[in-house]
Specification:
With about 220 residues, the chain is α+β, with helices and mostly antiparallel strands. The chain is built from three helices and 14 strands. It is globular and about 50 Å long.
Length: about 220
């Protein structure tokens, strides 16, 4: 049901913006990724862990077609907070053309509450639909996206684009193979790397900590 709702959301949002054969091709590729996840060029699978228990998963898939690169993040978390059941489902899509972001999509369903943010490049601007509200954003060239942090180290980059917040976030190297991503609310996520690939993410908050641990093949 969640996957179907996400696909319907993508179809509805992107359908309003499709105006060329290339954009239609991108739409079909994104929808096919939702149905045929196994036909991917590369996939990273993480266990979501809290207090030593696995409470969900996070997968990153990447597909390349000519000068287009498609990245998708999918996660599902189920746990209990005190006496309440908590559930979160997230999907993010990113499309790069010649190394530059031309499309991004963020969808989250958290305990029944839905959030969706979509951005599509048009000339030098991005058309943004944030929970149904349309606007135009004037970004400089976007070549580094938060979903890429799982596939490769940020290296010397100090800014990374967030699909959710539709802005560049600060990222700092705090130790060898460890980087701190600073969120708009002042919280931080820590990304650890081994052989150039992220093998652990620490989500540290005041009342809890969650870890994404890369599964061993």
């Amino acid at each position: 049901m969640i996957t179907f709702q996400i696909i319907q959301t993508k179809r509805k949002i992107i359908g309003n913006l499709v105006s060329s054969k290339k954009e239609l091709f991108i739409l079909m590729m994104l929808l096919s990724c939702s149905f045929y996840g196994i036909a991917q060029e590369g996939i990273l699978q993480y266990d979501v862990i809290r207090n030593g228990n696995v409470i969900g998963f996070l997968n990153i898939t990447e597909r390349t077609n000519g000068n287009l690169v498609f990245l998708e993040l999918k996660s599902e978390v189920k746990t209990k907070q005190l006496l309440f059941l908590y559930r979160s489902d997230v999907t993010e899509d990113v499309v790069f053309e010649n190394g530059e972001m031309i499309y991004s999509f963020y969808y989250k369903k958290e305990n029944g509450k839905e959030t969706s943010v979509e951005a599509k490049k048009s000339d030098r601007n991005f058309n943004v639909i944030d929970n149904g509200n349309r606007s135009v954003a004037h970004y400089k060239s976007v070549r580094n996206n938060i979903v890429q942090l799982y596939r490769r180290s940020p290296g010397t980059d100090t800014k990374i684009f967030s699909n959710h917040f539709q802005q560049f976030l600060d990222i700092q190297k705090v130790a060898e193979n460890k980087y701190r991503l600073i969120l708009p609310d002042g919280n931080s996520n820590y990304y650890h790397y081994k052989n150039g690939v992220c093998d652990q993410v620490d989500i540290e908050r005041t009342l809890f900590a969650i870890h994404f641990i890369l599964r061993k093949k």
